[in-house]
Amino acid sequence: MNMEFIEALHELEKERGISADILFEAIEAALISAYKKNFASLQNVRVHIDRMTGEFKVFARKNVVDEVEDSRTQVSLEEARKIDPNYAIDDVVEYEVTPREFGRIAAQTAKQVVVQRIREAERGMIYDEYINREGDIVTGVVQRYDQKNVIVDLGKVEAILTAQEQIPGETYQPFERIKTFVVEVKKTTKGPQVMLSRTHPGLIKRLFELEVPEIHDGLVEIKGVSREAGARSKIAVYSRDPNVDPVGACVGPKGSRVQTIVTELKGEKIDIVNFSTDPEEFVANALSPAKVVGVYPKPNEKVALVVVPDYQLSLAIGKEGQNARLAAKLTNWKIDIKSESQALAQNLIPEKNEELGEFEEYDEFADYAEYEEYEDYNEYEEYSEYDEEYEENAEYDETSYDENYDDELVYDENSEYEDFDNYEKEELPYEEGEEYEVTSGNAGSDKEDYTLAESESKEEKLTERDRAMMKYFDADEKNSRKEKKKKAKGKR
């Protein structure tokens, strides 16, 4: 071995990222295997390589004993003290047995051992790297489809995105860069196996940590995440600093931060709500965007009755119960949602115990005991005396009542002409045979005053009221003619 060999080892260290000490240990192990195979030696052998010059030496190791049974592995105390007087029983004596050269077969064996050790070292380094990134987010490039699984290149290793961990309806194109969540890292004989996920709730959390500096700096804390991949997610955030709005920090200016995450998740909707230690407030916030009228929790059972307006009931439940499920996962409470009308009709709203500060169940029969003494009460007794007074003073004329009231109203088509008959019988303001003179006005005027004379026609003798009635009857007659024509056409 010479300096070229040492330089090659250092170059390999830079390319593969394997330390030189590991490479030297691998070559030493390869030389030991080659020595035993070439010389058919059963001795305990140690190989030492000088890190500076590259020279190697082989040493045979023997144990110091009183009586030698196997000369290949044991040495007597007397012979050991000839080498060094300080040796004692059970010490190890080393003899240099460096061969002049190795055979071709021994060199090939050494090469195989070196290559195998380098591979093992690489796998160990990759496993150590990704086992520390378990539960973290990584960016990879889609390589190919293996049946329903997607193979993603992470640089040093190819990871697997199984069909169960893919977002429903999402497709991946070759050489597309995607962000994934590291679920598990397994150590196998073929190297580390990295399992990825796109549906894990941790992916939402890590994406917000990347996009929101306040979360990375610790000003805003993510308290919980519930997710139905591909449809909707809910995230609860909290800030100890009253000057920092946690929801606004996650949304970003004009929604830029949350929109980046939505784009990465291919349009998945995200609800960001405020976290609260008060279960009533937290449950009400978790049902966002629905408005809540009241929350009535049972802390012992971790069950909460939520009352919402009637028009908000479908929004609070969500499509196929999605909003209610996500809120229950986020709060770890069982949520029962009722509308206002349902809660009032079923008497579900409990009464608050002021001493305990908790809500008690409402018993609809609890308040009925105080009314038991009124069971024999007749609500009509107080009005009986008025009935007697009414019977004594009741005097009325049955005949007059019958004349003024008709049970059935019968329409008389000739009734509307009664007034006209009265007008004919009405006395005229003048007598027949009376003559009226025509008087002329001033000389030169075109106007003349006319008075009625006996020779005038019957229409001129009628009053204005009579003329109006005549016009009404004419119009009625025309309408009746039109109706008759329509009926005649219909029969045809």
TrEMBL record:
Gene Ontology CC annotation, any one: cytosol
Key words, A-Z: Cytoplasm, RNA-binding, Transcription, Transcription antitermination, Transcription regulation, Transcription termination
Biased composition (Basic and acidic residues): 445-480
PROSITE patterns (alphabetical): S1 (PS50126)
Region of interest (Disordered), ranges: 414-492
Chain intervals with Basic residues compositional bias: 481-492
Pfam families: KH_NusA_1st, KH_NusA_2nd, NusA_N, S1
Compartments, as annotated in UniProt: Cytoplasm
HAMAP family, A to Z: NusA_B
Assembly and binders: Monomer. Binds directly to the core enzyme of the DNA-dependent RNA polymerase and to nascent RNA.
Functional note: Participates in both transcription termination and antitermination.
Protein name per UniProt: Transcription termination/antitermination protein NusA
